[in-house]
Amino acid sequence: MATKTGLKGKVAIVTASTAGIGFAIAKRLAQDGAHVVISSRKKQKVDAAVQELKAEGLNVSGIVCHVGKAEDRKKLIEQTVKEQGGLDIFVSNAAVNPTMGPILETTESVWDKIFDTNLKANFFLIKDAAEQIEKRGGGSIIQVSSIGGFIGDEFLGAYAVSKTAMIGLTKALVPQLASMNIRINTICPGVIKTRFSEALWKSPMAEEMEKTTIPMGRFGVSEDCAGAVSFFVSDDASYITGENMVIAGGVKSRL
Ligand SMILES: NC(=O)c1ccc[n+]([C@@H]2O[C@H](COP(=O)([O-])OP(=O)(O)OC[C@H]3O[C@@H](n4cnc5c(N)ncnc54)[C@H](OP(=O)(O)O)[C@@H]3O)[C@@H](O)[C@H]2O)c1
Prior knowledge:
The protein is α/β, with parallel strands linked by helices. It has nine helices and seven strands.
């Protein structure tokens, strides 16, 4: 797609952005004109993603960050501000789902890992990012939750509950962030064809599932999510905050 200039001069961080949904969001925000900081756990993947986007003429840099590590989170925000002069947009995309299965089979260590990454790390990153975004006079924060957070799910178990908590967090953060001139919105994707969800879209029942459970008749692709984020962080969404937007091809959702 053609490069737009709506985010020219803005600095954005996207966590977990070397593959899948995060990569598509990072690419789109860079195409919209922002400088985008790419990050994930593995340096090799960060370097490869940066190289790929730079080769397309996009304005990106990379910082390794395992969101589960407090020192990495601190470094991600501090280094971005030091190197790019500030922060305007923060996209919290990293999450884990170590097991699939009935929720009552969740062990304590799995529960802790899910909530430490998907909720605690997400919250403290947002807190630190907001402090920096306020210094620039305001900006935008995006969380990546899931339709699983709306509907719960027998097989997504504790992961889905952590995603429900993120939906609540969107609402809880609105008043304080609004007073800092920061908008926060959350996207809640359905099944998007990435490595993370391979077990669903590569399963023998996948074709049947697409036809019978998704009104639009197809699984999503990462770009379906990137477009929504591009809108939410743009001035076109200047009066929109606290929303949890489902991107799921018409699958019904209600808390
Ligand atoms: N795909 C779906 O169907 C779907 C549906 C609803 C919601 N979501 C949500 O969308 C988000 C992205 O998922 P995806 O489907 O795009 O996954 P993906 O394609 O598997 O990509 C995962 C990315 O996360 C990075 N990563 C993994 N653990 C990390 C950590 N602890 N800290 C920092 N980076 C980490 C990976 O790089 P490294 O290996 O280098 O760390 C990679 O860049 C997640 O929040 C997920 O819950 C996905």
